[in-house]
């Protein structure tokens, strides 16, 4: 059974930082591209950042320079370091594991940026 479990969300003030984690089980983690997506109320789910199985990264333009995605294949974990957070970053953040044949999602973790 595949499980992706996100953690690290919460309430933070504008300009603050959060570090999200996603622990994966039930997959051969090292062969999956791992991504973070987010969905704000009334909006479509959008890409935040992706890290390939080989370690290449890609970010949405609005996150470049503020967010950093990383992975630890030994711990089957992917992280998203979020700095300089803005109110518009408020959303549910989802972890995704993707291969050529399969795509799996976590349940999401809420990030709220507010003073």
In short:
With 115 residues, the protein is mainly beta. The protein is 0% helix and 52% strand.
Major beta sheet summary: 7 strands, mixed
Percent in strands = over 45%
Structural class: mainly beta
Rg for CA atoms: 13 Å
- Terminal CA distance: 40 Å
Whole-number mean pLDDT: 97
Compute the number of helices. 0
Multimeric organization: single chain
Silhouette: globular
Q: Helical residue percent?
A: under 10%
Task: Write down how many β-strands occur, each being a DSSP E stretch of 2 or more residues.
Answer: 11
Q: Uncertain spans, ≥5 residues at pLDDT below 50?
A: none
Secondary-structure element order, N to C: EEEEEEEEEEE
Q: Can you give a write-up of this model?
A:
By secondary structure, the protein is mainly beta. 0% of the residues lie in helices and 52% in strands. Strands 2, 4, 5, 6, 9, 10 and 11 form a seven-stranded mixed sheet that branches.
Keywords:
115 residues, four-stranded antiparallel β-sheet, mainly beta, seven-stranded mixed β-sheet
Question: What is the secondary structure topology, with strand pairs?
Answer:
Elements: E1 3-7, E2 10-12, E3 18-25, E4 33-39, E5 46-51, E6 57-59, E7 67-72, E8 77-82, E9 91-98, E10 103-105, E11 109-113
Parallel strand pairs: 2-11
Antiparallel strand pairs: 1-3, 3-8, 4-5, 4-9, 5-6, 7-8, 9-10, 9-11
């Amino acid at each position: 059974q595949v499980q992706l479990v996100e953690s690290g969300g919460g309430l933070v003030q504008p300009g603050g930082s959060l570090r999200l984690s996603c622990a994966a089980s039930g997959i051969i983690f090292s062969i999956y591209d791992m991504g973070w997506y987010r969905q704000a109320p009334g909006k479509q789910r959008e890409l935040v950042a992706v890290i390939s199985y080989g370690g290449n990264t890609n970010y949405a333009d609005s996150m470049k320079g503020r967010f950093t995605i990383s992975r630890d294949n030994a711990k089957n974990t992917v992280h998203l370091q979020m700095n300089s957070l803005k109110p518009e970053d408020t959303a549910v953040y989802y972890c995704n594991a993707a291969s050529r044949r399969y795509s799996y999602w976590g349940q999401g973790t809420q990030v709220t940026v507010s003073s």
